[in-house]
Amino acid sequence: SSMTEIKIWDAATGTIQLTLPNVTDSEVTALSLDDRGRRFILGTHKGGVTIHSYATGALIQTQKGHKKEVTAVVYLSFPRMICSASIDGRVHIYQDNEDATRPFLVLSLQNP
Fold first, then answer.
1. Can you count the helices (H) and strands (E) in the chain?
2. Each residue of 4-57: pLDDT tens digit?
3. Predicted TM-score (pTM) above 0.90
4. Which residues sit opposite 42 in a β-bridge?
5. Which residues contact 76 (CB under 8 A, 6 or more apart)?
């Protein structure tokens, strides 16, 4: 098992349902599911925020807005936003649009 690998477990049986190797080029440091359970959002050690298919692990969208490790990603079902926080002192809020190639950055806040 590596830090760039995602394992999907069946909560009822405790068995691994799917292993997705090398889904990122950097260690996974944060993860969240979307509101429909069809995609997962990853934060990485290098500051990347990526959106992947839950079924296959395929990369759907990329946002590289942080300069350092992402420490948290959260999916908000209403009004469909993705929030990420990083040790670079920034919080980014993206409008989730499944049809776009990239989430639209709505707001970037920085710790003074």
1. 0, 10
2. 888 888 889 999 988 888 888 899 999 999 999 899 999 999 999 999 998 888
3. no
4. 31, 50
5. 82, 83
